[in-house]
């Protein structure tokens, strides 16, 4: 092609381009066909579903009400505080009602139920959640204090609110858990997996967690669906509170069972520890050492450590 | 400065500001000089390179074709399905062709090759990828079913498509792997590291992975470049399928060798397990327990567990 | 409600909606009250604080100066290089000065200090940081070369700059560490937690890290506040350089102590290893094997491995 005259090269290039472009309709027909085949997943029909993007926007909006003044670029002062809350709360009510309604309607359609009250139910759930905001703020204040008391690197409360992934994950968990308690479908899990994505901390919205909870560093933490955690518990990166191994074919039977452990008040669990099983109880004030693997209960006031592992040293002069 | 008259303070403040601002050109000259020195990295020249931002946009666009109706806020119904695919596919063809062309051109320049056909090749690779979309949809449907069957916490397929990081990572892997097979440079790795960033799951685009693959929780999972994984494999958070340690200076020799393990059909690997080495084969239907560290092969139908570690209990009453 | 005439159903729906909407002012009053109670956290007052969003924008802007040509969609060539740096540096100076000033002012208010010079100090810190940019570029070039030499999967330098999370985390660490050295409050930690969020790598801005530092894969890596790392160190995913366990009530005393280890030149630390304690020194050229747990020093030139753990094999035919 180097030797072609300029005009010819241009024409060739244009024709080539047209050639490939003309295959787009083939692709489109194949995609349409793949939707009718019944093997692939799609959401085609008159009922819309919640929007992942809109649910993430809701998280930001709720955060602005929970931590007023931290996540906006305008100033809040005493004289305009009521205007600020008024404007934010009004907008939140509309947007939250809409997404909850979509989630409920989607669930009705999925179960072939009539959906005459979804809109009303959506608004009811939205306002009921919003009445809880001051209580959420109070519980989150205990989490913030626990972070400051538990982390020698913390320089102040603002740093924690601004930047600690543990607090962000717990904040989103507490929001999602509230929606879970209200039996709102889909939205709690979208919220908790958003938290997982930005923090590396995976807390199922149906877990129960007491006040003054602190997760330090946090990447890799997993808190399973039926976990119960008391007050003033501290957890480090890479801790798994999980289920025992699942034999294939028993998954269905296990969907409704308590499969994850119970952690009582004032327990500390160091990095990389794994605690498994629905009947495992870690007694109050116990300390679980780093990398410990536990599938049985521990009485209160126990410290559990790994026996010093046998290390092999090669070279060096000790 | 407290006692200065107002006008004087203002002037001082303005002058100070001008003083620091006037140093900006010095900084600029130093930065220009640092580009000529040959020690720093920059991309200066007439040929543009792919845009990370544009490649991430491509992922979203491809996702909208793979899961129609899930990641948009408008409704798709039977009557407008063809219009939807038509519009999305046309736009994707243009944008994909452009980025692939840029990646190929960048590679030509880097190897001092002529680049007369990059644009045509880019369009060819784009349309060829798009013809694969229905097949990708079918394989991903097996992954979605595997997630539902493998996770007792899953409430339905929509929840998995909307929010499971494991599915997102596998979706992006399957997209990136297809581009890798087409020898498209740079773009597959940008895609897989985007997946790594949002899910904590690091799958190299050149790994081979069979159908019905499920990663639960997923944070910290690493699947190395030359890993081979069969069908119906399930993997949990923190699992590494990696290379044996690399003596310094041998890196160059290893660039083309199989360095990562082979996992046969129907294997389950629990959280935190590490399997290393290019000659390590985990036989079909085997189960690898949590935190197990393996550098040798395991025959089919084997269960491998850590011997219960010696724990030290202090205090408590057992 | 199924049997209601159409008009009545509509009226009921509108009234229901008005009913829930009318509760919004109650919620607003409760939120206002929760701010006066002294138990919750808020930032209400005339002084604004830095914006998380603006600080993340600063990271992107600084990245564009550190890696010219990589993260923009326009072309940089020799003839417009000075214009590019000039425009970007001017904008950076303004935006950086503003955020540093806000951070300093916020700190003054918090400690009840007068804040007459915050704006001047903010500009001074901004320009002083910018004078360091060419040096940062030179150090980052050593990190990029270390990544290429340490990873057999690396196909070229561009791939590393575009997509390696380890390089992104180290880049943001080096930026944040510079601000930390300038005693800029809040901003370094917001930056490092942004890096943590997008890479899963948690490096405290006050740690000391030498040149040619490479983190491979990286998810779950923690480098604590008082860690010291020499030159040419390589670290893999899941490595913790942390503090020994903190007895409750001793946190306050420990805030100013060296609590994290020292890693000398040319050390390699494989995935999942944990090294704890302020007096722990890993001697030069040592290699720490995967999953090793260390709370004591290791002399130079030592290789430390876990003794092969006792595994239990059930079934299979070996």
From TrEMBL, chains A, B, C:
Keywords linked to the UniProt accession: Acyltransferase, Amino-acid biosynthesis, Transferase
Any one Gene Ontology BP term: amino acid biosynthetic process
GO molecular function, one term: serine O-acetyltransferase activity
EC code: 2.3.1.30
Name the UniProt record assigns to this protein: Serine O-acetyltransferase
């Amino acid at each position: 092609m180097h030797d072609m005259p300029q005009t010819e090269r241009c024409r060739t290039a244009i024709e080539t381009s047209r050639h490939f472009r003309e295959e787009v309709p083939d692709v489109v027909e194949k995609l349409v066909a793949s939707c009718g085949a019944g093997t692939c997943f799609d959401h085609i029909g008159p009922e819309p579903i919640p929007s992942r993007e809109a649910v993430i926007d809701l998280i930001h909006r709720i955060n602005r009400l929970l931590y007023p003044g931290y996540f906006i670029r305008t100033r809040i002062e005493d004289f305009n505080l009521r205007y600020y809350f008024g404007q934010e709360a009004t907008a939140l009510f509309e947007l939250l009602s809409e997404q909850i309604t979509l989630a409920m309607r989607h669930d009705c359609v999925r179960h072939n139920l009539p959906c005459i009250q979804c809109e009303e139910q959506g608004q009811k759930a939205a306002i009921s959640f919003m009445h809880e905001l001051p209580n959420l703020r109070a519980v989150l204040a205990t989490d913030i204090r626990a972070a400051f008391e538990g982390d020698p690197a913390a320089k102040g409360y603002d740093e924690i609110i601004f930047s600690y992934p543990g607090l962000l994950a717990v904040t989103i968990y507490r929001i999602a858990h509230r929606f879970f308690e209200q039996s709102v479908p889909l939205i709690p899990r979208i919220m908790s997996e958003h938290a997982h994505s930005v923090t590396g901390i995976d807390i199922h919205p149906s877990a129960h967690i007491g006040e003054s909870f602190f997760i330090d560093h946090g990447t890799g933490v997993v808190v399973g669906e039926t976990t119960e955690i008391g007050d003033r518990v501290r957890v480090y990166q890479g801790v798994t509170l999980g289920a025992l191994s699942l034999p294939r074919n028993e998954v269905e039977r296990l969907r409704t069972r308590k499969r994850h452990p119970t952690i009582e008040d004032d327990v500390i669990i160091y990095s990389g520890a794994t605690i498994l099983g629905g009947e495992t109880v870690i007694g109050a004030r116990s300390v679980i050492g780093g990398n410990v693997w536990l599938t049985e209960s521990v009485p209160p006031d126990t410290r559990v450590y790994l026996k010093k592992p046998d290390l092999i040293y090669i070279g060096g002069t000790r």
